[in-house]
Design a protein that fits this description.
Order of helices and strands: EEEEE
Oligomer: single chain
Largest sheet: 5 strands, antiparallel
Shape: globular
Strand content: over 45%
Number of helices: 0
């Protein structure tokens, strides 16, 4: 599957569909490159409307799009 680097979504509002088909919307506040990640996967965190910080690694994301 064609996946852009998660870095391209940093500082953007996104909609994420995870591998369990749950939808999340929020602002990408952090980006961690794979080399700095414990699991050696790219990671991002989004801040949702209720100020919850939700983290994802690249394997947990089925779909991500800029809103």
């Amino acid at each position: 599957k064609e996946v852009k680097s998660l870095k391209e979504y940093f500082n953007k509002k996104v909609r994420i569909l995870d591998i369990d088909n749950k939808e999340f919307k929020g602002y990408v506040t952090t980006y961690t490159p794979a080399i700095d990640s414990e699991e050696e996967l790219e990671e991002i965190s989004i801040l949702d409307k209720r100020d919850n910080l939700i983290g994802f690694n690249e394997e947990e994301i089925k779909l991500i799009e800029v809103m």
